[in-house]
Amino acid sequence: MKIDRLLSIVILLLNRRQLQAKELADMFEVSVRTIYRDIDTINAAGIPIVTTQGSGGGIGLMEGYRLDRNILTDRELADIFTALQSVSSYGGKEHNLLMEKISSVIPPSQSAAFRSKTTQFVVDFSPWGLDRLLEERLALLKEALEENRVVAFDYVNADGEASRRSAEPYTLVLKGQAWYLYGRCELRQEFRLFKLLRMKELVKETREFTRQELKVQEMPWSTDWHRNTRTVQTVLHFAPEGKHLAEDHFDTTQLAPDGNGGYTVVINYPEDGWLYGFLLRFGTTVEVLEPEHIRRKLGELAADIAAKYRTNLDEYPQT
Q: Could you tell me which residue ranges the HTH deoR-type domain spans (predicted)?
């Protein structure tokens, strides 16, 4: 929309002394002629923009022009800025522009103090090495959310069962360093959480849906995983050489010293493929003491792994 572009140009010029018309044209994917028309419109609205020609010239705001910032305190603005930084890798132009807007209302005399506040606490949710496929899925789902469009995708659940799904998207959730889509599954006729990394062939359909009103307090990502019907109490013993791993994954209140340099841990987790993978990551430093059926299952998985690698080793001469 033109009004969005006009506001964005003003915000950019508030934060930067000068920009070239070609830079703005490329940024908003319009022609240079359109940018100059936008500048005339902004000037007509009472916001003083000046243009200079020649080497070192460009488009800029009249010296001293600022926006009013009486709504929020510096601390509140810094907190919002920090929160936006945490998801800026996935927010695209919208988040970057909003951070520009926040910066624009900070007087020059306070800009150093503001930058200090916004670097005191950094949260970065992006993975090591940005996942382009994940970024593309997030962008498509954000479009579907804004347009109230149904999405369709191939999905493999935690038990390895594959199916083609279509869902009405409601919320994107970042939980435990993984992105999920919360939406109404047309196959199951109920709301479900879908892990984005398990989605394949994701498309946005032409069909629209009417969004229901949902209460955040009733959404399942904080409580559904720990329903009593889905969890099992498991007793683990960490050997001394795995002590640091236990301390990395569990709260100190969950760690009971065994008197020999190790720990015993009692946890309640859902019993599914995730639990077995989670326990296997500790290798030989952990032993499941209870329940017996999980001990047996892990023993079978470990034997299968050993057999696979033993077969591969037989193909190579011993040194």
A: 2-60
Both tokens of 139, joined, read: 């962008």
Task: Give strand pairing partners of 160.
Answer: none
d(CA 43, CA 49): 6
Query: Side chain identity at 8, as an amino acid letter?
Result: S
Distance CA 227, CA 250 (A): 20
CATH fold for the domain made of 132-222: SH3 type barrels. (2.30.30)
Q: What is the pTM of this model?
A: 0.50
For domain 2-61, give the CATH number.
1.10.10.10
User: pLDDT of 123-144, one tens digit each?
Assistant: 655 655 556 778 788 889 988 9
Reduce the DSSP state of residue 153 to 3 states and report it.
strand
Q: Which amino acid makes up residue 92?
A: G
CA distance 69 to 80: 14
The string over 152-190, giving b where at least 16 C-beta atoms fall within 10 Å of a residue's C-beta and e elsewhere, is bbebeeeeeeeeebbbbbbbbbeeeeebbbbbbbeeeee
User: Class of 228-313 per CATH?
Assistant: alpha beta
